[in-house]
Amino acid sequence: MKSETCFGKVSGQPLTQYFDEEEALSGAEYAKEYYDNDLSPYHCNKCGLWHLSPKSRQTPSHKCNHCTGGDGVHKDSYRSKREANLRADIIYGEQGIRLKVYQCKFSSGWHLTKSAY
What we know:
By secondary structure, the protein is of the alpha+beta class. The protein has helices at residues 21-35, 81-95, and strands spanning 2-7, 14-16, 39-43, 50-54, 61-68, 74-78, 100-103, 110-113.
């Protein structure tokens, strides 16, 4: 089933939505077997369902309990500097926004910022 709220960053097309991780994993296996697409499921914060993304775009994150952006929303925290840099590169490639990576003062995570740091 196609989403009415979530769209591909590159294609702009509605994303396929899955109701649970098991269903999304099955979709990823199907895409690999029939189309040789290497996809990985992720839980969408926007719609609460599951979608697939190319494994090369996967940069797992969680919301930091301590840090917020200028908009007051809790910042995403990445597990490593490498993953944060990968996300910054993806955002630059898709949106032309340059972001810097810095280590969280309160945890072992890494954040992104537009400010010179």
